Amino acid sequence: MGERAAILSVVRDFADAEIRPHVMEWDEAQHFPSEVFRKLGDLGFLGVLFPEEYGGAGLTYGDYAAIVEEIAAVDGSIALSLAAHNSLGSNHIFQFGSESQRRRYIPKLAAGEWLAAWGLTEAEAGSDASGTKTTAVRDGDEWVLNGSKNFITNASVAKVAVLMAVTDRGAGKHGISAFIVDLENPGIRVGKKENKLGMRASDTCTLVMEDCRVPSDALLGKEGSGFIDSMKILDGGRISIAALSVGIARGAYEASLRYAKERRQFGRPIAEFEAIQFYLADMATEIDAARMLTMRAASVKDAGEEVTRYSAQAKLYASEVAVRATERAVQIHGGYGFIKDYPVEKFYRDVKLCTIGEGTSEIQRLVIARSLLG
Ligand SMILES: Cc1cc2nc3c(=O)[nH]c(=O)nc-3n(C[C@H](O)[C@H](O)[C@H](O)COP(=O)(O)OP(=O)(O)OC[C@H]3O[C@@H](n4cnc5c(N)ncnc54)[C@H](O)[C@@H]3O)c2cc1C
What pLDDT score does 1 carry? Predict the structure, then answer.
């Protein structure tokens, strides 16, 4: 067995034993299972991309995408929180942090002792993230942050968040900087917990900063480079949303394949009807194509080459395939697809986040077109 196959067999066993039995219970209660994340940390899945000398697993983006897919095939919520921790919050610290910031945060984040969140989005700054209103003003040896961040994954369960704030209003997007904020800081609090359509076991809340004082060494990367660095982080993050999409689509497809062989109407399994066969054939084909685009983006990223276009293409295509596949999955299940006793109902709800989070489909098309047109 190759190294990736061995890793995936561990992920699969873990997801079957520790996640699958609780999926609906966590979804209904909107419960974030902290204990599962501690175990994911013990297994090395919370520091997938970081070198072993920082406590990471030292794996590639290809491995990471395969891990996210495997977990998402069981529960998209867990995969989403794992992705926000690995490739957004922690990775921003690893990619752009000083050596002392890396040493201070990455080992604990990789071990799952701490979780990370990442906050770019605000009420008025969604697709247009350069519209950030949160400010950070220097005061002696400290920065004082004021503002709020919306829809932040892991906000109420994380120990640290990487947050973008304006440090020079006149400099536009070159006036936005990134900060590492300890979420036990009395100047920051968790605001509204969102009541969501899907991904309900993933924690999504507002973070509110009121005169939140952080030390000068909380600045992450160069002053004024927070927006540009965030775009680079999203280039990698989108590979995980593509993988998340492939995983959800695959989970829905596998459930549909099983169901189509079992469910009988007109005296035969519904899998014998050509209409159902064509649905399954299209799902399998599109999911394979989406995985290939995802793995191409991962290979480009692993080679250290410019990945913006490839990760946007993978994210766009995989998320739209996944929305289509889960809709077909509900259709194949008929009335039972509409009922919470069958897994496809939840896949259908969860998947919609994939065409929205880390940049909507419309924004991916803009990114791709910009890259094509130069
Ligand atoms: C569950 C969940 C988790 C999230 N986690 C995080 C997180 O951890 N950190 C974080 O920072 N953010 C997070 N987000 C925020 C997410 O990235 C944004 O919701 C997303 O980028 C879209 O922004 P918006 O919601 O403000 O939509 P808007 O930008 O208001 O978009 C509304 C519509 O207008 C379209 N649109 C906007 N501009 C254009 C344009 N120029 N051309 C064509 N169409 C356009 C959009 O595509 C969309 O269809 C999360 C969101 C959700 C729902």
Answer: 74
